[in-house]
Amino acid sequence: MFEIFFPLFLVALYFLIKLASRRNQTTVFGAPWVPLEPHVVNQIMELAKIKPNDIFYDLGSGDGRLVIAAATQGARAYGIEIDPFRVWYSRLCIFLFGLSGRAKIIHKNIFNVDLSSADIVTIYLLQETNDKLFKKLTCELKPDTRVVSAAF
């Protein structure tokens, strides 16, 4: 019985989370969710120059596509996301891709995360949020940390 209902449960959960993740949370979370196109993900990965076991952080990770891309390239990848629906959706995607050992989504505000261990940080946020992040990044990051930012 379990063998039948558990996969059906996972499929139903996937579609519920996917549906819920389409909601625009601009007023609640400070930035709209705008998914990166695959070619932009590839460009960001090229600019990041990921090496095996790099520590990768994606601030405002949304559906986790950068976290998944970094983990598949050998990084220990962390996504920081405040929207609970996107947190659960991206965790499910990481599980389905078999990357649970290399990738993790942290349900937290990006301003409350210690980034001092990061080798790479990616951001795809509004300019206003980037401006607020600047001081945090300059204070916490190592001198050789690579920061890759994409613009709306």
TrEMBL record:
> What would you give as a GO molecular function for this chain, any one?
histone H3K79 methyltransferase activity
Q: Where is the DOT1 domain?
A: 36-82
Q: Does the keyword Membrane apply?
A: no
Establish whether keyword Protein transport is in the entry.
no
Do you know which SUPFAM superfamilies this protein is assigned to? S-adenosyl-L-methionine-dependent methyltransferases
Print the keywords alphabetically: Methyltransferase, S-adenosyl-L-methionine, Transferase
User: What's the superkingdom here?
Assistant: Bacteria
**Gene Ontology biological process:** methylation
Protein's name according to its UniProt entry: DOT1 domain-containing protein
Give the organism, scientific name: Candidatus Shapirobacteria bacterium CG_4_10_14_0_2_um_filter_40_12
